[in-house]
From TrEMBL:
PANTHER family: TRANSMEMBRANE PROTEIN 106B, TRANSMEMBRANE PROTEIN 106C. Keywords: Membrane, Transmembrane, Transmembrane helix. Residues 18-83 form the Transmembrane protein 106 N-terminal domain. This is Transmembrane protein 106C. Belongs to the TMEM106 family. It comes from Salvator merianae. It is found in: Endomembrane system. GO terms for cellular component: endomembrane system. The chain crosses the membrane at residues 84-105.
């Protein structure tokens, strides 16, 4: 019995010594492997890594020049809901494009005749001339989402198919987005002469209302986003060549032009 116990104890110590020897051997092998230089075992279908140069380490100066390889089955190479993302992107692009076209596409700028506001009459008795200072008004409506500029305004007055007065104005005004504005302008017209009956008709005291028909042709140029449009108006108006006329709704700043210096005698009646 004593011999069997001694045998067991000796076998236990021998096994412990064997484990310690194995542990020390494995530790020695790890240290030997750490000291062993890096070697790539290349097969028939593989090549040596050129960037490592057989050392197993990447040079520091090449860190920003090398590209990391990602496995083919990596999830980062398989984004989810690709079709949904593409569809949403296309819809957003179409929406933005539609909004840009809607807000920047040129809309019409309407120019309407707003009538004659003020007519001031002078008489040149020496030359038998009737001189009119006609202040007319235009209503311009801007339906765009940006301001437009009225670059020029040209007006011509005709009586009996004869041009009796013209006016040209540059850099008229600027109209705000989605708004309208009244633009007033004054044209001086001279009618009559020694062989004309207009002077006699306009100065005849027996006639209380000296109405005459004039024809006005007005052209307006409007600029916006590098685009220039032109609107023309042709209207017939009645004016009283025997007395001054002021519209009740005329703007207070619409003042007539001063009388010409060549007028010898000036006759003004009360405002009708």
């Amino acid at each position: 019995m004593g011999s069997s116990q001694s045998l067991g104890v000796s076998s236990y110590y021998s096994s412990r010594e064997g484990e310690e020897n194995d542990f020390s051997d494995s530790k020695d092998r790890e240290e030997d492997i750490a000291k062993f230089p890096y070697v790539e075992f290349t097969g028939r279908d593989s090549i040596t890594c050129p960037s490592c140069q057989g050392t197993g380490c990447i040079p520091t100066e090449q860190v920003n020049e090398l590209v990391a390889l990602i496995p083919y089955h990596d999830q980062r190479l398989k984004p989810q809901r690709t079709k949904l993302h593409v569809l949403v992107s296309v819809l957003l692009c179409l929406l933005v494009s539609g909004l840009v076209v809607f807000f920047l596409f040129p809309h019409s700028v309407l120019v309407d005749d707003n009538g004659i506001k003020v007519v001031t009459v002078w008489f040149d008795d020496k030359n038998s001339l009737v001189i009119l200072a006609i202040t007319a008004s235009l209503r311009i409506r801007n339906s765009n989402f940006y301001a437009v500029t009225v670059t020029s305004l040209a007006s011509q007055v005709q009586y009996m198919n004869t041009v009796v007065g013209t006016e040209q104005i540059n850099s008229v005004t600027r109209i705000k987005p989605l708004s309208e504005q009244l633009v007033n302008f004054t044209v001086k017209a001279e009618m009559g002469g020694p062989s004309s009956s207009i002077y006699f008709f306009c100065t005849l005291p027996k006639i209380r209302v000296h109405n005459m028909v004039i024809f006005m042709r007005t052209s307006v140029k409007i600029s916006y986003i590098g685009h220039i449009t032109q609107s023309s108006l042709e209207m017939h108006h009645y004016v009283d060549c025997g007395s001054n006329f002021t519209d009740a709704h005329a703007d207070p700043w619409s003042a007539p032009i001063p009388p010409p210096t060549e007028v010898v005698s000036q006759r003004k009646n009360n405002v009708s």
